[in-house]
Amino acid sequence: MELRSARQFSCASCRTLALICSACDRGSIYCPPCAPSTRAERQRAARRKYRNTTQGRRQNAAAQARFRERQRQLSRMPKAVVAKIVMDQGSLPEPPCSSLDAVSLPIISTNLICHFCGRPVFPQVRLGFLRRKERVETPPRRSQGEFT
């Protein structure tokens, strides 16, 4: 099994130390248990911000109109049909476990693994990001009419 280099970081949400291998590393700053809830929180904030714009208000008004029309149509149906429609939609999915219930992320161990994919990593971990390769400066392009 191939060992990969890894980066150790402190989760920006719960301050837990986590390891991420070079294959999984995309600049993550949240551990696997905190990432989905933090993403959902940021998306809610973005939706709130959008709803306060003119375009967001118009879209919300149109959605409310569609909702009221659906409610009007349901109120005209017999109750047995409405109950069947509600039952066909199914129950709500189970909520994911909270970060307190999640498995703790071991850092001090002889067999270190990536907390994202589970692959083994080298025991010497980085604390910073990998550096990009230096770009070679290219001369500016000449326009079609220029000759030297």
Describe the structure.
- The chain has 148 residues and is mainly alpha-helical.
- It has three helices and two strands.
- The radius of gyration is 26 Å and the shape is flat.
- 10% of the residues are buried.
Q: Numbering strands along the chain, what is their spatial order in the largest sheet?
A: 1-2
Low-confidence stretches: 97-107
Anisotropy-based shape: flat
Mean pLDDT: 79
Strand portion, in percent? 5-15%
The secondary-structure class comes to mainly alpha
Number of helices: 3
Distance between the termini: 56 Å
Assign a percent range to the helix content. Answer: 25-40%
Gyration radius, rounded: 26 Å
SSE arrangement, N to C:
EEHHH
What's the main sheet like? Answer: 2 strands, antiparallel
Number of strands: 2
Quick tags:
single chain; 148 residues; mainly alpha; two-stranded antiparallel sheet; 2 strands
Give the gist of this structure:
With about 150 residues, the chain is mainly alpha-helical. Helix content is about 35%, strand content about 5%.
Outline the fold blueprint.
Layout: E1 6-10, E2 17-21, H1 35-51, H2 54-76, H3 79-88
Antiparallel strand pairs: 1-2
